[in-house]
Amino acid sequence: MSVLELAVERQRYHGAAAKTALQRIFSFPVVLGAALVVGIYVPLRAFAVDPDVWWHVKVGEGILATHRWPTVDPYSFTAHGSPWIAYEWLGEVLLAVVNRLGGLTALLALNVLLAGAVVTGVYCYAAMRSRNSKAACVAVVALLPIAYLSFTLRPQMIGYLFLVLTLIILERFRQGHTRELWFLPPIFLFWVNTHGTFVFGLMALGVYWGSGLVDIHWGGLESRLWTAAERKRIAFVALLCFIALTITPYGTAIAAYPLDMAFGQPINVANIQEWQPVAFELFYGKLFLFLLVVFILAQVTLRLKWRLEEFTLFLVGLVALCLHARFVLIFVPFFAPLLATVLAKWVPPYEAGKDPHGLNAILLPAMLVMVLWLFPSPAKIGESVAEHFPVGALSYLRQHPVPGRMYNTYGYGGYLIYTADGPNKVFIDGRADIYERLGVFSDYLNISRVAENALLLLRAYNIQSCLIDRGEALATVLAASPEWQRVYGDKTSLLFVRRPAVSATAAGK
Asked: Is residue 77 part of a domain?
């Protein structure tokens, strides 16, 4: 072959490779994945911020400013100076960096990116298992209404993304692709410093490893033994993952925190809404129950076979969600592959030969343009924040400072920390662990629920003002009490101040 012929052949090869790459990029499965991201983006653009995001950002800013990790509480007057560590410090630093770069607009963009990455990851994982991208898409669409409420901007979103990546890597390893397994130790290194959901990653790793140690063919369950090389590799990687859990600024304390959460914070678990069992009276609870019934009926009628590891993880996710609604995004990636496999019995598979790549090349940029066009302005984002947090009340306080300690609603504490520009400390915020250990959380519950000793507790803490949600029962009690005077109110929050004469009498006592 002459040099000219060789050059022509090489050009043809590169041209064919480029064409194949473009066809993969502008393929129907990619369009489906993009459509899922747009689907979750539309409701997320309302920027319904979780109350905890504010103090997470503040903690991250403190680490960036001082280059030190906190060891005591600096934000409250009820727990000031008490031992406390930033269990999610790496995620908090990320939030702080993003906030520095673009404020609320950048934080919203980060939430969309993380949510989109989680949804895309679940879709890829389901498609990988069911070998049907269209069935995987339908499964994720069915699960999105269940998962939506969990797409809030907190470090746990990064943890959910790590979980999906771990599941994809383990499934790839199960299918014979061994190299990706080495990504797990660095993932766990970042994961343990970001959020406590790493325990579910360890569980998934253990389930995959253990399922390959037994040869089971029992009813609809089956397993395949690891080869000697596979068994050694996954065991060694698991050991590296455990070692990675100890590499934190606080030693092993971060890795042990999920145990404290599970067994050492009963008041927190019993009273915070996200730790409650799944609410079957709500739409997402009814949808969850419906999909579960459909899955059981499909199993009975089709007599499907499942691998031991995937069915075990499904049961883990099912129990976790039934016990705590917070674990929705643990259940969804565990269940999506099974649901997609069931749907693949009726949904026809993707056929590459019939793919309209030209149309796809139009749809993908159109989706991107739509996302950018619909992205809310900073003013709109500010309005959304003001609907849920005491923006107006804080503006009033800056113009009319109220000396002394201020009681605040639990959901307002993080925002007060985030906007603090003076020495005032909060009564309570989303770091429920530290307040539970000191008994402050119990006192807060008694005050907010207007127990018999509610007003006595306010005096005991020497509270001079109360910033509370407009709909709280405490607002009615304070409005009727001669000790208190309402000095500010809007559709979101109310501000009460102890009357001077009563305050002076109390001080004299």
From this structure: no
